[in-house]
Amino acid sequence: MCGIHHHQHHQQHGSHTSPSSSPATSQATPAVATRACPNCGRPVQGDYIVCPYCGTQLKRSCPQCGRAVDVDWNVCAYCGADLTAPASETPEP
Ligand SMILES: [Zn+2]
Ligand SMILES: [Zn+2]
């Protein structure tokens, strides 16, 4: 009753898939404006608000439009507000 029949399967190994289409990815360096931290001198990105290394404030928020402006700026480039004025924090909800 134990009839084991070995069926010979003719497996066809003729289809070799070779992925010849390799996309040439040219690594283009992203143009990120890097600057040096005025305190520790480590490279920080231009859009950083605070230096992640030493915590020095690199940008401040414009008192008028609220956008991040450079601490070296005298006038806000977005709304034209005078940034040389002493920052008088008025808690105004
Ligand atoms: Zn720093
Ligand atoms: Zn502004």
Key phrases:
93 residues, mainly beta, two-stranded antiparallel sheet, rod-shaped, binds zinc ion
Rg, please? 32 Å
The backbone outline, from C-alpha atoms, is rod-shaped
Hetero compounds = zinc ion
Question: Would you tell me the structural class of the helices and strands?
Answer: mainly beta
User: What is the strand content?
Assistant: 5-15%
Count of distinct strands: 4
Q: Separation of termini?
A: 91 Å
Approximate helicity band = under 10%
Unreliable parts: none
Mean pLDDT: 79
Explain this structure to me?
- This protein has no helices and 4 strands.
- The protein has 93 residues and is mainly beta.
- A two-stranded antiparallel sheet has the order 1-2. A two-stranded antiparallel ribbon has the order 3-4.
- The mean pLDDT is 79.
- The chain has a domain of 37 residues.
- The chain is rod-shaped and about 100 Å long.
- Bound molecules: zinc ion (ZN) (2 copies).
- The site of one zinc ion (ZN) has 8 residues, from loops.
Summarize this entry quickly.
The chain is mainly β and 93 residues long. It has strands at 34-36, 43-45, 59-61, 68-70.
SSE map:
Layout: E1 34-36, E2 43-45, E3 59-61, E4 68-70
Antiparallel strand pairs: 1-2, 3-4
The structure holds zinc ion (2 copies).
